[in-house]
Amino acid sequence: MSLNMKKFETDLEILVDEGEDLRKALFFKAYGKEKTIEIFEIPDDRTAKFFHDLPWFDVAYESWYSEALAVVKQLLPDRFQDFKSHFEIPQGRKSLSFTSYRISDALKGAIIKNGLGEIVVDSKAAVPHFRQQIAILVAAKRRFKSSLFEIKQIVQADLFDSELDAARELLKNKFFRAAGAITGVVLEKHLRQVCEDHKIKIVKKHPGISDLNNLLKENAIIEVPQWRHITLLGDYRNLCDHNKQKEPTAEQVTDLIDGTDKVLKTIA
Asked: How far apart are CA 90 and CA 88, in angstroms?
C-alpha cells in the first residue's frame, strides 16, 4: 500500500504540472503569441522551445479534466461541484456572455460578436475558470499531504475494489449468495463512511443499509432516485443474506454488484 500511496502522490504532482502547462496553452489560444511571451516572461532564446512544448489545449484538456475531476472528488469532495461548474454550461443559461462562458465553450471555439462584427466574448473568458480549477487541484494536493486527510479513505477504496472483484469471481462461478453477501458488506461500509464524512450522527449501534440510506436522504446528501436505487440494492443484499426460501438470481446479484460499484463512484 505504501507503494500505491507513493504512486498516487507522484501522479498527483504530474497532474498539477500538466495543468500548469495547459494553463499556458489556454492563454496562448486566447491571447496569442505576443501576449503569452509578455505575461510568462519568456526569454528570446527559449521562445521556440516554449511554444513547441506547449500541449494543444483543445485535445489535451479533456483527459486532464477527467483525471483531475476524480482526484478532487476523492480528496476534496466539498469542492467537487465547484470544480465541475467551471467546465459545464450553467443550467438554464439563456445567452452566452462573459459571465456565463465556460471552458466547454472554449473547446468548441464559441465566440460572440457585436453589431460591428467585433469579437466581444471568446476563449479569454475561460482563462479565469481554468485558473480556478488548477487552484482547486492544488488545494486537493495540499489536502493529500496534510494530516487533515485520512489516508484510510484511499486504503478503503482499494479494499472495496478488491472485494467487488472477489464478488464478481464468485458470481462467475455461480456462488450467488456469497457474491451478494460480500457486496452488501461493501455497500454498507461505504454508506457508513459517507455518513461519517458528512458528520451525520448514527444513533443505532449496528445500522444496516436501510438505516444509513435513510440518514443520507434525510440529510440531503442523496436525492430520492439515489435513495430508491440503494433501497433496491439493500433488498437484493437481504435476499442473499437472509431469505433462505428464495434463491437470488444471477441478474439480481449482477445488479447488486454493478449498482454498488456505481454508488462507490458517485456518492461521497
From this structure: 6
- Whether the pTM exceeds 0.70: the reply is no
Task: State the Cα–Cα distance between residues 184 and 268, nearest whole angstrom.
Answer: 17
250, part of any domain: yes
Judgement on whether residues 179 and 127 belong to the same structural domain of the protein: no
The full DSSP string for 115-166 is: TTS-EEESGGGGHHHHHHHHHHHHHHHHHHHSTTS-THHHHHHHHHHHHHHH
Q: How far out from the chain centre does Cα 15 lie? A: 14
Is 205 in contact with 226 (CB distance < 8 Å)? no
Query: Which residue from 227, 211, 236 is spatially nearest to 263, judged by alpha carbons?
Result: 227
CA distance 30 to 36: 9
Question: Into how many domains does the chain fold?
Answer: 2
- CA 100 – CA 43 distance, rounded (Å): 35
- Which residue has cell 430520492? 224
Q: Give the model confidence (pLDDT) of 75-99 as tens digits.
A: 888 899 999 999 999 888 988 998 9
Helix (H, G, I), strand (E, B) or coil at 248: coil
Name the packing angle between helices 2-31 and 127-145 (round to 10°): 160
- Of the candidates 163, 157, 152, the residue with the CA atom closest to the CA atom of residue 264: 157
Query: By mean pLDDT, which of 55-59, 120-124, 129-133, 155-159 is the weakest?
Result: 155-159
Q: Are residues 86 and 214 in the same domain?
A: no
